[in-house]
Write a structure and sequence with these properties.
This protein starts with a helix and ends in a 5-residue tail after the last helix. A six-stranded antiparallel beta sheet has the order 2-1-11-10-7-8, with no helix packed on it. A five-stranded mixed beta sheet has the order 4-3-5-6-9, with no helix packed on it. With about 200 residues, it is α+β, with helices and mostly antiparallel strands. Strand 7 (about 70) and strand 8 form a beta hairpin. The chain has helices at about 5, 105, 110-120, 125, 130-140, 175-195, and strands at about 10-15, 20, 25-30, 40, 50-55, 60-65, 70, 75, 80, 85-90, 95-100. It contains six helices and eleven strands. The chain is about 25% helix and about 25% strand. The protein is elongated. The longest helix is centred in the C-terminal third of the chain and has 17 residues, at about 175-195.
Length: about 200
């Protein structure tokens, strides 16, 4: 067995015939340019079309914003794990991937992949109820508390920065968010007990 066959992590078999393309590294750039790991010299293949990565015992394909897209089993994808026997479409060229998943790496691959997918986006993003940039902006917003009047005496001379919280009446140290929340809840509870204004 030759040295390059020992390192082979699978092959891409052209659908309809042709020479199989060996997958010799765990990260392969596919495109039209001669310096790509897998060079497909076709006009409809982008210069840097997609990338194949061997991750946790499985091959994953990621489109690199190609003009004519990348497909797995006929479905256009941005990034997707591919399994043995899947048909990869690079522009109009189709290849069946053949490899053996690594049993050592593959043990928890499905769980890890699911965990990554679940934690990389919020529930609102996954439900398509908010765009990612809106969700990031929402997370950056600070919690706004109701304004509570603070009585200052003549001795009180405070100069608060934009991110500082005024102290409670009679206190000289800034209040924590938890203290403010408790204070507001108590104020609202007391106001609820008072008879309504006449």
């Amino acid at each position: 067995m030759r040295q390059d066959e020992k390192k082979q992590l699978g092959v891409l078999d052209p659908v309809g015939g042709g020479d199989p393309i060996p997958l010799l590294k765990d990260r392969l750039l596919v495109g039209r340019r001669p310096d790509c790991d897998i060079c497909l010299p076709f006009a409809n293949v982008s210069a840097k079309h997609c990338e194949l990565r061997f991750v946790q015992g499985y091959w994953t394909i990621r489109d690199l914003n190609s003009t004519n897209g990348t497909k797995v089993n006929g479905q256009r994808v941005h990034e997707k794990r591919v399994y043995p026997g899947d048909v990869i479409g690079i522009a109009t060229h189709r290849y069946k991937i053949d490899y053996t998943p690594d049993p050592v790496q593959a043990h928890d691959a499905e769980t890890d992949d699911l965990f990554h997918k679940v934690t990389e986006q919020s529930l609102m993003e996954r439900a398509n109820l908010v765009r990612p940039e809106e969700e990031r902006a929402r997370r950056r917003r600070r919690v706004r508390l109701p304004e509570t009047p603070v009585r200052l005496t003549a001795d009180d001379d405070f100069d608060y920065g934009p991110d500082e919280t005024p102290p409670f009446p009679g206190s000289t140290s800034p209040a924590s968010t938890e203290e403010l929340l408790r204070f507001v809840e108590e104020e609202q509870r007391q106001q609820g007990r008072r008879p309504s204004d006449r």
